[in-house]
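Field: COMPLEX_INPUT
Field: COMPONENT_COUNT = two
Field: RESIDUE_TOTAL = 650
Field: MODE = joint
Values follow.
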Amino acid sequence: MTAEAVIHAVNLTRHYRIKSGPFAAPAVVKALNEASFDLYPGQTLAVVGESGCGKSTLARVLTMIEPPTSGELTINGHRVELKEGEPPPADLRRDVQIIFQNPYGSLNPRKTVATMLEEPLKLNRRDMSAAQRRQAAMEMIDRVGLRPEHVDRYPHMFSGGQRQRIAIARALMLHPKVLVLDEPVSALDLSIQAQILNLLADLQEEFGLAYVFISHDLSVVKRIADDVIVMYFGQPVETGHAAEVFSHPRHPYTQALFSATPVADPNRRKERMRLQGEPPSPLSPPPGCPFAPRCFKATSECSLEDPPLEPVSAHVNVACIHVEKARLTLRP
Amino acid sequence: MALLEIEGLDVRFRTSTGLFPAVEDASLSVDEGDVLSIVGESGSGKSVSMLATMGLLPWTAEISATRMAFDGQDLRRLSPRQRRKIIGGEMSMIFQEPMSSLNPCFTVGTQIDEMLKQHRGGSRKQRRERTLELLTQVGIPDPEKRIGAYPHQLSGGMSQRVMIAMAISCNPRLLIADEPTTALDVTIQAQILELLLELQRDNDMALILITHDMGVVAETAQRVIVQYAGRQVEHQDVKALFAHSRHPYTEALLSALPERAGDQQRLPTIPGVVPGQHNRPEGCLFNPRCRYATEHCRQVAPKAEADDPARTLCHYPL
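Field: COMPLEX_OUTPUT
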């Protein structure tokens, strides 16, 4: 890749301290552990995993809602240095915008569409006149497939799909470079889901946007992702090129996750790889590999240490001691 | 005679702006050992038709049917007392949100016990033994400890297992599962679906599975009813449905699945949205979104042909 990465993340980690009792020492929940990736303009990075795996924590760290506990985050060439409780620099915040899962909760019911779209401009673009702001809002409304008469309506007058279009328009008003999409289509009906996915693909092409697409729906991810991070219990367990991860999953958790996903083809009913049990409690993590208690490949060595993410091919890294490592050939 | 037979079921809700037809002319029949899936988008009336069968709709609902019978008993004429005997015993239901369907004030043991007390009786000791047996059957580890747990102490998957234990406590002959796995993660979803099918096979129970997920339909159902805007548009065997869907809506819905779109650049979409109370179109309800719609579709509501086993609700079935 010749272009410069818009997001460069190295070992991003976020821990929370939880009070466990009036006299007990606070417990530490490791919500996100050592996530590293590069994101380039026009590319989509998908983050996949089940609830509680740290997907949304990653979104909060990337959008600078929360500072990472440790690790490096570089956005658009600027190193982000955040202090707890301090707002991030406005110019960086402008470059990264977020779209939430539930469009019924993320839009203010008391504001019209126009007010919502113009608000970011009012705050960040003091040079624009009211007429210019209205003009920009109208252009964006048209771009996301709504009609001009929609601008003076309130959120309750729209369907779920239309609300998600409004949320997308609002996120794009400041022409960000990165859009963090936190389960953007999972609250929508199937027929509407396809419309929104097509819209996102068009916008990505038009504006050269980079997407961080957080989802649990593998059929959607498979379609749109360039790179993928599979997370379990706060840790990336398999990362790399989406095409390779999907065609040849290596980590036992990735394999189980793919196998558990129902396929819409009655002729392909298969024996599922059954995962026993549920993810462990974040307050009492198991020793060693967090997936070991549910893993079908687990041996006694698995509970000795937490396996690091290691390359298994040119484009994929896996954190499992039972997966054969790539023999790295050193070129002179 | 089928176990559950419904014909010509209409459900209308009295709203401040008039009657809203939530379900129109729904029919189905289920036999012991059947797995029937009702699939549709939100607002298609799939839950309402089953809630009407269970008698769980609020007083604003007007229910009428030409036939509605469970095991030969006419459900329309039952007194509330008689109905309570059947519901929860011979016919039971599990709901989408396990967390909000359980009573937070009582332990799960008490809540399962209540079912047994109502329908089976027996001594306290016998009931406790049966409760433990049920918890083991649905795969809850350490049931001796869990029997005294409150719902907030359980995860979503565990709560759903408790709901299932409650629903099967009296060996029902029909189990209605309303989106049983929608709120759960995929690995847990796989476990729960497996459990439901296992129970259905072992007890020769009939299972009606309400879902919006075509993947779940493909992997579990034998027969499928597709519902759109309160009307049943197609009845088919699961393999036939995925191979040759007869109604344009089903065809469009299946091709909008990302996994079936193949290498096409753009996903095929269905334009527009499901009609609501105030924008119901004339003629066929699907006509504004249908790519095959003609002038005839816009004026005349279709009726299923008498000789069509799929009962396709379309003037021009595919």
